[in-house]
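Aim 2 progress update. The chain analyzed this quarter is reproduced below.
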Amino acid sequence: MRLTCLVLFSVVCPCAILSAAVPTGTIAGSIQDPSGAVVPGATVTATSLETGLTRDVRSGSDGEYLIPLLPVGTYKVSVQAAGFASFEQVGIVVKADESSTVPVTLKVGSAAQAVTVQANAQMVETRSGTLNHVIAETNIVELPLDGRNPAALVLLTAGTEDLTAGNARGATGGAQTVVYPGAQEISSGGARYVGVNYNLDGGSDEDIYTTISNPFPNPDAVQEFSVQTNSYSAEYGRASGAIVNVVTKSGTNQFHGDAFDFLRNEDFNARNFFAATPDQLKRNQFGGSFGGPIKKDKLFFFGNYQGTVSHDITQGNPSTVPTAAERTGDFSALCTAGFNASGICNNSSQQLYNPYANPRSPFLDNQIPSTMFPSASLKVLGLVPLPQTSNGLVYYSLPVDYDENQFLPRVDYELGKHHLFGRYFYTHYVQDPVNATQDLLLATSGDN
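Predicted structure tokens:
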């Protein structure tokens, strides 16, 4: 059994010291008048359309402005300057670790007049040389995901390679140690898998023993995540390949939620042409999420749950077990070359010897006295089935069962220019090592 818990409390404010706390985005641009001259001292305000969060700055002497540390989401930018009509642009999408460029051209007029633009920002990055790829909510929700694991979408980034794939080479943590199911072993830019640094809401999200990612929240709990592969800021460090920053969802001024249930079993599956029966997999993933305002524009909540129950049976597993004769100590069948008059096998490699005798002595006719059988071995032997063939083979079906539960509650609070939130992520995965008490062959599956 493996248990992974993470509690995070974070504060985001316009202070350089906290700039690495949580994945955020930036809105920047320049302000000009109709002639192309810069407009210094203009008031620029960014307002979140989901939560009402506002940030305001003034343009500098060169007409440039920068609004940093904005939580990801959709924003409205408004500009006001003396002698000019008000300007407003809505639908600006702020993404994690990216800068949205919003150039503004003001028209001469009174503040009572307003110019409104319905358009997104320019997403050409001009402020940083970082190579950054954002996996947006649309990608997470609409692209097919094996096991509903968003971490697999890291591979959409150029230069990444799945080290668990059959055509990949190199030792990985999963090949040497036990890791949480679904953990990713990815190479970026030719670096080893340990060169990818994972963060969840600004906190490290790595298994400190294997340096592989801890489990991602399920798709209904992830807002988006960014993958930086080159020239990223020194604030991240500890990675030669890539930086993965995951942002969980939060509540907004609108109530929103969903429920889901994905079911798979043999009742819905066609039989493989070469199989006698349909597959025995029974797998069910279910859950939902819900979020909304506690106090409009101030306090928000979000909660998510996903449960997974899987029962599978692998058929036709072979194993070699003692025959009925061998259970009584008769191993004469091992000597295919025959025994001489003294009871010694004509092939010395097929002759059994008494390990307790000094010097060692052969068991005549490969017969081991039952009085030498330890009582513990006899009890274990009772849990091993008899063979189905003359050469000691038995074929059996092996159950493989596991369960997983994920919980993610989050609360956000907008306090002036400050954004505070608390989030708790709990995952619990169990795969039992023993599926039956009367057959030791059924205890050979992996356990977690």
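The first strand starts at residue 2 and ends at 12. Confidence is low (pLDDT under 50) at residues 1-7, 11-20, 167-176. These observations will guide the mutagenesis experiments scheduled for the next reporting period.
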